[in-house]
Design goal:
Blueprint lengths: L2 H12 L13 H4 L10 H4 L3 H10 L12 H13 L38 H4 L19 H15 L19 H7 L14 H11 L7 H7 L2 H9 L6 H7 L14 H4 L16 E5 L17 H9 L7 H11 L4 E4 L6 H15 L15 E4 L3 H14 L7 E4 L5 H9 L4 E4 L1 H9 L10 E5 L1 H5 L4 H8 L11 E6 L4 H7 L8 E5 L9 E7 L5 H12 L3 E5 L3 H13 L4 E4 L5 H12 L5 E4 L12 E6 L6 H8 L9 E7 L8 H10 L6 H9 L27 E4 L19
Parallel strand pairs: 2-7, 2-8, 3-5, 3-6, 4-5, 6-7, 9-14, 10-12, 10-13, 11-12, 13-14
Antiparallel strand pairs: 1-8, 1-15
This protein binds adenosine-5'-triphosphate (ATP).
Length: 735
């Protein structure tokens, strides 16, 4: 459903919201000056205490911007919000248009914008607080100063600079980690950014930026090297000049809490499920020359004792298919593109052999140094995912001298740097923060032996691809011949495979476990025909039936995530949310509340679609279907992990989802799921000759897109050869 439709739907409901404030975000005493206390409708203002109480119980504080609140109101909300697990709103005018210095907050807010959320004119964007509170459905109606006063901070990040991104739009994949960078580093696709400012704030930016040829985003000065000193002034606590501050944007002050250090926490894991052994029956195809044979047991990998101990403590007794094939390939020093179903252990498939190599090579303990030169960089598209990978790296390297470090956007840059300078062998990073740190000359690339792209298709698409290209052409980065490059994902569209070749040695191996881009068979998929205006009712009905079982509800836009989370809380369903407009602290809090079961429902945008491994997620509900089938595959893969079973229910809206009918039928069929007759009918009526399964290219690449490779072997994962069906593309040379 488009945003505009959504506006139409939410507007009538918005007036019934109970605004709840987060204590640390709103204080009329401190920030009241920036509030325009224009009265708003009483229905918006004066909701009864019962509902407020409900929010309180349900752990949800919908922090819309209600700048017209008086101090008394604010205090009441302070009480509620501190108990709330869900603080939607972020900025309450204190950093609004009157405040050009951006005392605090999140620099990522400057570029974390979506085209859908940026329909406001530049005047309205001007100097608004950078972080997005809940954008009221009314805010498309006003743009004058008084409105900005009253609701200026509403817009927050959403007002921002109008950094629309073609791929992220409002369905976010950490846009602060990707598209904004392409504007800065690789030539902007957003001409509005360069040259003319969008208002006070962006003017000041473009003012600074124009010395270098216009606004280029935070990263620009880093990459050109000019940001070095300004970083010092910011991250090392020195004074920033106005120009620097304006150019740099608001400081990010969030320092994530360190993960628990005790062994039990490090090795905490959930159980494999009843279908874990069924993995062995999945066909695996390896293509490329001279692939080493698969291993069948951990012992065959010949790992060192410490690694074996860690594997045992992690509860791994048996290899998953992707591990059986990838581990020997990586140990043999080969480049690899591996595609395996969600939740089937791809992370360990690359971490274990990399660590084994490092141990074998006699890695020296890394020590404090201003410039660290890690041996391995792992990049992934979202902050929560890199953090998860880091925790896995820390687990498997436990008791060794290998030090893993994680850095990601939305956290204080100085904190990232402090982590790095203490020593770094394996760096897990989101692309944006990685490029920043490289620009600050805290990371040298000369020693890189392993470059891992997790969710590689995402890392190479138009959102992150330019950033990745920049990374491999950074000074010092060993050429592809000199490093080992590893790519993992559950989906690998053909066109992305072709792009990947630039990163990989020509003799890379391709491992396909099951159907490339196929859904996990342990997820029972149901598609329901639900019209836009019935979705909420249906959602509540389903959630009430589900009870307390952990459920992720995916929606297409950030503001809808806020809206649905608010709505569910009103329905007394304890809910939290995660999306790219929430501050990192809030995102981590939300994930924590969901993981521990405090909020059994997590409403999420695509930011949570990939990679997240959360125990006991029994249900995924696609309140909105995503725009692409590969996104669907990743989303439903948040359940049914590691041999456990799960359920996915998708609302199919005849008005907007017909383009997905065909690929959906294919995914359902391949995963041996029931296909509703009505869906088949739609798929048939929208039949596109030569259909290849995706709205954007061929998700269903039968396997390796290279042609005519030799040495293709097709095995099931117990190691037995199966019939080698000729590949239709075998008759051409792929080099
Ligand atoms: N051999 C194994 N034995 C037991 N558990 C395993 C094994 N390999 C991985 N796991 C566990 O399975 C879960 C899923 O693994 P992981 O997150 O690496 O999956 P993935 O394939 O990367 O999924 P996605 O495609 O969603 O990113 C994790 O909890 C991991 O610890």
């Amino acid at each position: 459903m488009g945003d505009e439709d959504w506006e139409a739907e939410i507007k009538p409901h918005m007036s019934s919201y109970v605004p709840i404030f987060e204590k640390d975000r709103y204080s009329s005493g401190e920030n009241g000056d920036n509030f325009n206390r224009t009265p708003t409708s009483s229905s918006e203002m004066d909701d009864g205490p019962s509902r407020r109480d409900h929010f309180l119980k349900s752990g949800f504080a919908s922090g819309r911007n209600f700048g017209n609140r008086d101090a008394g109101e604010s205090n009441k909300r302070d009480n509620t919000s501190t108990m709330g697990g869900f603080g939607v709103g972020k900025s309450f005018g204190n950093r609004g248009f009157s405040n050009s210095k951006f005392e605090d907050g999140d620099s990522s807010g400057f570029w974390r914008e979506s085209s859908n959320d940026c329909e406001d004119n530049p005047t309205r964007n001007r100097g608004f607080s950078k972080r997005g509170g809940y954008r009221d459905g009314n805010n498309s109606e006003a743009s004058g100063p008084s409105r900005r006063g009253g609701r200026g901070s509403f817009r927050g990040c959403r007002g921002g600079f109008g950094l629309g991104s073609p791929t992220n739009q409002d369905n976010d994949l950490d846009p602060d980690e990707c598209m904004q960078r392409t504007g800065g580093l690789f030539g902007s696709r957003r001409p509005a950014l360069s040259g003319t400012g969008n208002g006070d704030t962006s003017q000041s930016r473009s003012g600074s930026g124009s010395e270098r040829g216009g606004y280029k985003g935070l990263n620009e000065e880093v990459i050109t090297g000019s940001g070095k000193n300004s970083w010092k002034s910011e991250a090392e606590g020195g004074e920033s000049s106005d120009t620097q501050v304006k150019f740099q944007g608001p400081k990010v002050t969030y320092i994530p809490p360190p993960p628990p250090e005790d062994e039990d926490s490090i090795f905490a894991h959930y159980q494999t499920g009843i279908n874990f052994d069924k993995y062995d029956t999945i066909l695996v195809e390896v293509s490329g020359h001279d692939a080493p044979p698969a291993i069948l047991t951990f012992e065959e990998a010949n790992l060192c004792q410490t690694l074996n101990n860690n594997i045992a403590k992690a509860g791994y007794t048996k290899l998953t298919p992707v591990q059986k094939y990838s581990i020997p390939i990586i140990l043999a020093g080969r480049d690899l593109m591996a595609c395996a179903q969600t939740g089937s252990g791809k992370t360990a498939a690359f971490l274990l052999p990399i660590l084994a190599h490092m141990m074998h090579d006699g890695i020296t303990a890394s020590r404090f140094k201003e410039l660290q030169e890690p041996e391995c960089i792992i990049v992934a598209p979202t902050r929560e995912l890199v953090n998860q990978i880091y925790l896995e790296a820390r687990k498997f390297s436990f008791g060794t001298c290998v030090r893993a470090v994680v850095i990601y956007g939305g956290t204080q840059l100085g904190h990232s740097i402090r982590q790095i300078v203490q020593g770094c062998n394996i760096l897990c990073a989101t692309p944006g923060r990685l490029m920043d740190i490289i620009g600050k000359e805290k990371i040298g690339l000369k020693q890189i032996k392993y470059l891992v792209l997790d969710e590689a298709d995402r890392m190479l698409d138009m959102g992150f691809g330019p950033e990745m290209k920049k990374l491999i052409s950074c000074p010092g980065m060993p050429s592809k011949e000199q490093r080992q490059t590893l790519m993992f994902s559950a989906t690998f569209p053909e066109e992305i495979q072709r792009l990947a070749a630039e990163f990989l040695k020509s003799n890379y191996l391709f491992v396909a476990v099951g159907q490339v881009g196929g859904a996990c068979r342990d997820v029972q998929q149901t598609v329901l025909q639900v019209g836009q205006f019935s979705k909420r009712e249906k959602l509540v009905e389903i959630l009430r039936n589900i009870g307390d079982e952990r459920t992720m509800v995916f929606v297409e836009t950030k503001k809808k995530a806020d809206f649905i989370a608010t709505f569910l809380c009103q329905e007394k369903i304890s809910t939290t949310s995660i999306h790219g407009d929430r501050e990192q602290r809030e995102r981590e809090q939300a994930l924590g509340d969901f993981r521990c079961g405090k909020c059994p429902v997590l409403v999420a945008t695509s930011v949570a679609a990939r990679g997240l491994d959360i125990e006991n997620v029994q249900h995924v509900i696609n309140f909105d279907l995503p725009s692409t089938i590969d996104e669907y595959v990743h989303r439903i893969g948040r359940t049914g992990r590691c041999g456990n079973t799960g359920r996915a229910i998708s609302f199919f809206d005849l008005e907007s989802d017909n383009h997905l009918a065909q690929p959906l039928v294919k995914v359902l069929t391949d995963a041996q799921q029931d296909v509703p007759a009505w869906l088949e009918e739609i798929a048939f009526s929208t039949y596109i000759p030569g259909f290849s399964g995706s709205t954007r290219g061929n998700v269903f690449a039968s396997v390796d897109t290279r042609k005519n490779y030799q040495g293709k072997s097709s095995l099931n994962t117990a190691g037995f050869s199966s019939s080698q069906a000729p590949n239709p593309v075998d008759d051409e040379s792929w080099d």
